[in-house]
Design goal:
The chain is of the alpha+beta class. The protein contains 13 helices and 21 strands. Strands 1, 4, 5, 6, 8, 9, 10, 11 and 12 form a nine-stranded mixed sheet that branches.
């Protein structure tokens, strides 16, 4: 059963939140972070991407850069830009995009739950990325950025979210990207106890986004437990920062592909090969969006095509075989184009659906890419089925939007 606890959050005063809050460390590069933080000494980028305080080109993994993160985190607290709550709280964090709001509960999640599989994952992690975030957690002795969790819908927790969010938000602002962010502090002791008790009835939590952050946070907590001869199990390092959303609140958007060449085929030969496994309908020059599972949009030489996988080319009883990313990866990218490793092949690139299908058209029309392939989004049920069966999704399958804003609350590993 899921073990979560409230914690003494470290967070910005209300009047500074828009200056402190930032996008997550992994959605922008160093130069973009430097540009966004320009003229703003309170930007969280000075802690999560501290290379921006050095000359351009500085190795972001150098010891002095990690040391700068610690120095800046300390300075933020000394300056009153980040202040720790006196009592342990849960928090409610809501995000608004395109008129739709999703509500999550900010919790301290349990390291043992991660290590023992009660926090389920659906992606592979890379050791180098884990090590980078482990260093960041270790030296700051804090989880600066949250992990994005989902959990099966729960009526009691939904009711609590409604009760809390009927009150006035502590933070309420629209970020430069147009997404709304709303944040409440759960003050009532009885409500805090009810949240803890209700999560204890939930068998599993699911990582929606932030697999490397989850792994890093759990590994550091596990490391601290091994190093402490007086380890009890209730120390703050046994927990890490997460925002957990009811699954029905979340919407996974499409994650699309653009490919540089046709593997020596002419466009006509390429379409002929595709027709073996897909029903092709020419949709003309207007952008075509996939309409259902197993339906794809192909953009080639200025025209859009609907591709529908023929029966027998997929397995709806297999949690991996049913995925459109599997069908397209096997029957088009591998069998026709010769791309076998989505993680490393330089002939393919990936475009999050947040950019729209016009971005696919632009990259093909520019001559950079030969064709684009748009996929129908994965569902939360598919994600949870894969995690429940111990399977791993193929690379570049899910794209969650909006991303969690960093800097609204931080979890210290110190008791």
């Amino acid at each position: 059963m899921a073990k979560v606890k409230p914690f003494k959050g470290i967070r910005p005063p209300k009047e500074l939140v828009t200056e402190v809050a930032s996008r997550p460390y992994d959605v922008l590069n160093s130069e973009e972070a430097r540009a966004e933080a320009e003229g703003n000494p309170r930007s969280l980028y000075h802690i999560i991407k501290p290379e921006i305080d050095f000359a351009p080109g500085t190795d972001e993994h150098s010891p002095e850069v990690y040391a700068k993160a610690v120095e800046n985190f300390k300075a933020f607290r000394e300056n009153g830009w980040l202040v720790q709550d006196a009592k342990e709280h849960y928090y409610i964090y809501a995000q608004t995009m395109d008129g739709r709001t999703q509500y999550g509960i900010v919790v301290a999640a349990n390291v043992d739950d991660y290590m023992e599989g009660r926090i389920k994952k659906h992606e592979l992690t890379r050791r180098d990325k884990e090590e980078d975030r482990m260093k960041h957690v270790r030296i700051n002795n804090a989880n600066i950025e949250p992990v994005f969790f989902a959990f099966p819908d729960n009526e009691v927790l939904e009711k609590i979210i409604k009760e809390v969010t009927d009150g006035k938000a502590e933070y309420d602002f629209t970020a430069p990207d147009g997404f709304g962010h709303h944040f409440w502090v759960v003050e009532d002791a009885d409500t805090i106890s009810r949240i803890t008790e209700e999560f204890a009835k939930i068998p599993y939590l699911y990582i929606a986004d932030g697999h490397h952050r989850s792994a890093a946070a759990a590994l550091v907590g596990n490391e601290k437990a091994r190093q402490n001869p007086a380890h009890r199990g209730d120390e703050e390092y046994n927990y890490f920062l997460a925002v957990a959303f009811p699954a029905s609140h979340l919407k996974i958007i499409d994650y699309n592909r653009v490919v540089r060449d046709l593997n020596g085929l002419s466009p006509a030969e390429f379409l002929e090969r595709i027709e073996k496994n897909f029903v092709i309908v020419d949709k003309g020059t207007e952008v075509y969006t996939p309409e259902a599972l197993h339906n794809f949009a192909l953009y080639l030489e200025g025209r859009w095509y609907s591709l529908t996988a023929r029966p027998g080319t997929y397995n709806d009883n297999d949690p991996i075989g049913v995925l459109d990313v599997t069908i397209s990866s096997d029957l088009i990218l591998r069998d026709i184009i010769g791309i076998t490793d989505l993680r490393s092949d330089k002939r393919i690139d990936f475009v999050g659906g947040i950019r729209g299908l016009e971005e696919l058209k632009r990259r093909v029309d520019s001559g950079e890419m030969a064709f684009a392939l748009a996929l129908y989004p994965v569902s939360m049920k598919q994600l949870m089925d894969i995690a429940d069966t111990g399977n791993i999704m193929p690379p570049k399958t899910t794209w969650f939007e909006p991303k969690l804003r960093s800097g609204l609350v931080i979890h210290s590993l110190e008791d």
